Structure prediction request, 100 residues.
Amino acid sequence: MQEIEFEIDSGNRGDSDDLYEHIRNEMELAHEALVDGLDYTGPYVTNESLSGDEQRKLVEVLKRHEGIKIASGNALPPPAYGVVCDIDVQGHIPIKQRAQ
Prediction:
């Protein structure tokens, strides 16, 4: 930020330029992923060979251990691949990064 202020003072950069300052660790990170609600009626949960009482017990166990599944990432949706963003790179090839 000091370099930008120096450029403004020296006249190399105008005050009207859109400048954004990145402040390290400004955003707080959530300790766990926010999931509105998991679907316990999907095809991977329901089992036709189980009786109604056994199916209910299975759903109770899954709900009881929901925090473990979310923490390990098993209940979260897969990462998005091929996401298109609208950052203007002015004809340059964007830098590719691995999904984390």
